[in-house]
Design goal:
The protein is an alpha/beta fold. The chain has one domain: 3-Layer(aba) Sandwich (Rossmann fold), CATH 3.40.50.170. Helix content is 38%, strand content 19%. Helix 1 runs parallel beside helix 6 and helix 5 crosses helix 6. The longest helix has 27 residues. It binds 5-O-phosphono-beta-D-ribofuranosylamine (GRF). 5-O-phosphono-beta-D-ribofuranosylamine binds next to helix 1, strand 4 and helix 6. One of its GO terms (molecular function) is phosphoribosylglycinamide formyltransferase activity. Catalyzes the transfer of a formyl group from 10-formyltetrahydrofolate to 5-phospho-ribosyl-glycinamide (GAR), producing 5-phospho-ribosyl-N-formylglycinamide (FGAR) and tetrahydrofolate. Pathway: Purine metabolism; IMP biosynthesis via de novo pathway; N(2)-formyl-N(1)-(5-phospho-D-ribosyl)glycinamide from N(1)-(5-phospho-D-ribosyl)glycinamide (10-formyl THF route): step 1/1. Its EC number is 2.1.2.2.
Length: 199
């Protein structure tokens, strides 16, 4: 499966997806890394790792059309958001339904949006984590494909907690994406569970 990874920043989850794809049994290949920030550090890393990159400017008026065309030009079949800090418009999503996944640093449905680690600490939670989910028009609300728990320890700050959750994210994302693609390629699962999702 040809995978595009969309980023806005450092791209550590992108790197985790790329490195995991080097295992022989990985069901996806990173076909493209792009995003909304032409100077995102993750783009330089992807390039150095031999992955095709496209520099798109999120400020361009026709950004979403450009993105859609770029994905199609690279024959992308699946899209993984990895620290991609733009809300995806409905008409774009409609074209890629069931084919966009995201990673979010909380145990969804808890703590949607930004500031998840501070919210978990402030709430006195003992456990937080990360979630990989399908992207639907409503923010951080699509079907949960997989989660991992991470303990919150005494003295954790949003920064120390973020660092630890990130380690868990890097393991979760490639695994859950691979599982999802494995299921999506099974014709019985398509008819039973995803219906009109045309994977
Ligand atoms: C990650 O914590 C991810 O869960 C969130 O944004 C952060 C991106 O980090 N959506 P990176 O660019 O993957 O290093």
């Amino acid at each position: 499966t040809r995978l595009a990874i969309l980023i806005s920043g450092r791209g550590s989850n992108m790197a985790a997806l790329i490195y995991a794809s080097r295992a022989e049994d990985c069901p996806y290949e990173p076909a493209l890394v792009t995003g909304n920030k032409p100077d995102a550090p993750g783009l330089a890393l992807a390039h150095a790792e031999g992955v095709t990159t496209a520099k798109l400017d999120g400020k361009a008026k026709d950004f979403w059309t450009q993105l859609d065309e770029t994905l199609r030009a690279h024959e992308v079949e699946m899209v993984a958001l990895a620290g991609f800090m733009r809300i995806i418009p409905d008409d774009f999503l409609a074209k890629w339904e069931g084919r966009i996944v995201n990673i979010h640093p909380s145990l969804l449905p808890k703590y949607k949006g930004v500031g998840t680690h501070k919210a978990a600490i402030d709430a006195g939670d003992k456990v937080t984590g990360a979630t990989v989910h399908l992207v639907i028009p409503e923010l951080d609300s699509g079907e949960v494909l997989g989660q991992v728990e991470v303990a919150i320890v005494e003295g954790d700050t949003p920064e120390t907690l973020a660092d630890r959750v990130l380690i868990a994210e890097h393991q979760l994302y490639p695994r859950v994406l691979s599982d999802y693609l494995g299921r999506a390629l099974d014709p019985d699962w398509i008819t039973e569970e995803v219906g009109r999702r045309a994977l």
